[in-house]
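FORM 12-B: Structure-to-Sequence Request
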């Protein structure tokens, strides 16, 4: 994997079948699994986990200890705060109905999409199957249980729309009904 200006910290574990874009920086203790595609000029900070087949666009910044599981697509210019957790199964179980260890056949991976320019605050959880719209802003500690439209500020548990933001993330309206 020879890519111009690519930096991979010696403690990072990047699978040989992952694709990493030019100028991306992968810091200490990051794991990137097989089939993952990471765009140009991204930053994966300490302890980030990128599961197999995850798709990440260009100019994405993922902060310390975030977990991005299989089934998640992150478009260009997205910010993922520290300790953000994406899920990918709405009914997770360690065992199947016969009380045997669950296998890939027992699991239904659900697709999640974070659209261009969106930001997700620290310690937020994103439930499987949700879409976070372009330039939406998710407040720290929020739990996203439904789709969030573009340019919406959503906060809380469950996350609810409390305003509209511009491309810089600045509040432009403080309405309660969206």
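FORM 12-B RESPONSE
SEQUENCE OUT:
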């Amino acid at each position: 994997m020879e890519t111009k200006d690519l930096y991979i910290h010696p403690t990072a574990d990047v699978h040989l079948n992952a694709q990493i874009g030019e100028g991306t920086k992968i810091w200490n203790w990051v794991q990137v699994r097989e089939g993952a595609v990471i765009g140009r000029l991204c930053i994966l900070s300490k302890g980030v986990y990128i599961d197999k087949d995850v798709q990440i666009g260009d100019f994405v910044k993922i902060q310390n200890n975030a977990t991005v599981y299989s089934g998640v697509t992150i478009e260009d210019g997205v910010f993922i705060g520290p300790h953000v957790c994406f899920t990918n199964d709405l009914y997770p179980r360690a065992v199947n109905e016969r009380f045997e260890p669950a296998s890939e056949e027992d699991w239904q991976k659900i697709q999640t999409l974070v659209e261009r320019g969106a930001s997700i605050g620290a310690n937020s959880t994103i439930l499987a199957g949700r879409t976070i719209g372009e330039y939406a802003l998710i407040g720290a500690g929020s739990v996203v249980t439904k789709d969030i439209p573009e340019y919406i500020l959503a906060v809380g548990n469950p996350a609810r729309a409390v305003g509209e933001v511009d491309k810089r993330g600045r509040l432009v309206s403080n309405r309660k009904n969206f």
